[in-house]
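Suppose you are handed a protein chain with no further information: no name, no annotation, nothing but its sequence. What can you learn? This example shows the usual starting point.
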Amino acid sequence: EKAAVGLEKRAPNSPLTWNLRGLVSMSKREWKDAARYFEDNLRSIGRIAADSGFALILSTEPSSLRTRYGADAPPEKKYWLDDGESTAVYRDSLDARLQKVAAELARGGMRVQYIKQDLPSDKFLDDAHLTSDGNAAMAKVFAEAALRLLNQRS
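A reasonable first move is to predict its three-dimensional structure. Written in structure tokens, the prediction is:
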């Protein structure tokens, strides 16, 4: 935690600062703080992209938690919270923050695309890792978003 505080003093707007603060919060199971740092990190990345003249694609992390696991499924992975549903709810809260930041950046004139990943459960090996077909489907969605951004440029 001391390292995060020190980094924040030296580089308050760096994505590294917000990432480290979020990791510290997650290690303490302070999920609301970690989500806030996630949002701050997204804004910081957006500022860097805007200042550099880059377009930005923001994407929901694909998940099959709700389609492959019951609400009370015990944690299978270290990154799960208390159970499958609490982990899915937390991911939903991160997605809401992602959508919020994408909308803010777009209102500010930035070329940004938000992608909600909604893949069927047969495209997953487990709750988060994709099959080759799942990766291909996701790559297609990203390519289409990139083309939309390129078309906005011309």
